[in-house]
Design brief:
The complex is a heterodimer of chains A (about 160) and B (about 160).
Chain A (H helix, E strand, L loop, with lengths): L1 H54 L5 H7 L4 H6 L5 E5 L14 E7 L10 E8 L17 E7 L7
Parallel strand pairs in A: 1-2
Antiparallel strand pairs in A: 2-3, 3-4
Helix pairs in contact in A: 1-2
Chain B lengths: L3 H53 L7 H15 L5 E9 L12 E10 L15 E10 L17
Antiparallel strand pairs in B: 1-2, 2-3
The chains are: A alpha+beta (about 160), B alpha+beta (about 160).
């Protein structure tokens, strides 16, 4: 009887341990993912602000779009193991072609559309999973699809 | 030593334990993922509201309609997160008040996160997946701003 109970405990442990481990890894991944997304939202917001400030100076629109590139290192610092590609004066490529572990930082001053005449900053892509074992869960983790529009800081007349 | 009754009882107990623990684990997992999505929405809503308030002070004092439109346009186009619906923003103060002034502009925004529109819909459905958030953004006006020609009672 005792031997059977011992065997049962081993079997139960063998069943529960991987589940428990998976749960633990998932929470770790979720924590990293949340941190990365918060950082990306902040970078998008800040990029739009600095670009709008630059657009309000005597420099050209091109300079305003280039200045967003200075935020790429900050974006990369908050995305562990993910490459960041800065694409000035262009829209980010449509999702889902962005491979996992790749993020685009793009800006544009469109002449048509809902943000025409404004500085548009986009952060699109899919950050790399910190726990590769959880790749099967990636469909539950939406890709980053952030956008911020800002007027330039010239007081309009 | 052969006690079949005990074995059956133990098997039943295991089944009950399993039936109780699995839903709890699922609630924890999907609850956490939903919480993460909610946190991202809150961050995005905060950022978009602050950007909208900044947009509202770009126009000359007294140009109320243009400032309101700029704030709304900035907000709507800056909050593009997954599953976010029903965004609304109202700004007041500064050049948006009936008697415009150079006081700060304050914007109050709300957005609903519909988790039913995200991959988490397998768990969060219907009213359970509808979460509404609010945010407040503020932008201080510059003293060097110009005034609209028709603006009156304004310290420009």
């Amino acid at each position: 009887m005792r031997r059977r109970e011992g065997g049962q405990a081993v079997v139960e442990f063998a069943l529960v341990a991987p589940l428990f481990l998976a749960l633990l890894l998932m929470f770790i991944q979720a924590g990293f993912s949340a941190m990365e997304k918060m950082n990306s939202v902040n970078v998008t917001d800040t990029s739009a602000r600095i670009a709008s400030s630059a657009a309000g100076s005597t420099s050209s629109e091109t300079a305003a779009l280039q200045v967003v590139g200075s935020m790429a290192p900050r974006l990369k610092a908050g995305l562990v193991g993910t490459s960041v590609t800065f694409r000035p004066n262009t829209w980010c490529p449509s999702l889902p072609p962005a491979p996992q572990g790749s993020i685009y930082l793009c800006d544009q001053i469109p002449t048509v559309g809902s943000c025409s005449g404004m500085v548009v900053v986009q952060v699109w892509g899919q950050p790399r999973l910190m726990v590769p074992l959880l790749a099967f869960m990636s469909p539950l983790d939406p890709p980053l699809h952030l956008q911020a529009c800002a007027y330039d800081s010239v007081f309009r007349r | 030593m052969n006690r079949p009754g005990v074995q059956v009882d133990q098997a039943g107990q295991s089944l009950v334990e399993f039936a109780i623990s699995v839903p709890i684990i699922l609630v924890i997992i999907f609850g956490f993922l939903g919480f993460m999505q909610a946190m991202q929405t809150v961050t995005e809503l905060d950022a978009a509201t602050t950007l909208a308030a900044s947009a509202a002070i770009q126009f000359p004092v007294g140009e109320v309609a243009q400032s309101q439109a700029a704030a709304r346009r900035t907000f709507i186009n800056s909050i593009s997160g997954y599953g976010i619906t029903g965004q609304a923003i109202t700004c007041s103060g500064g050049n948006l008040s009936p008697t415009p002034s150079t006081a700060p502009v304050v914007c109050h925004a709300a957005a609903t996160l519909d988790l039913g529109n995200t991959p988490l819909a397998v768990f969060w459905r219907g009213p359970l997946g509808l979460l509404t958030f609010t945010a407040t953004g503020r932008a201080d006006s510059s003293t060097s701003r110009s005034c609209a020609p028709e603006a009156t009672n304004v310290a420009c």
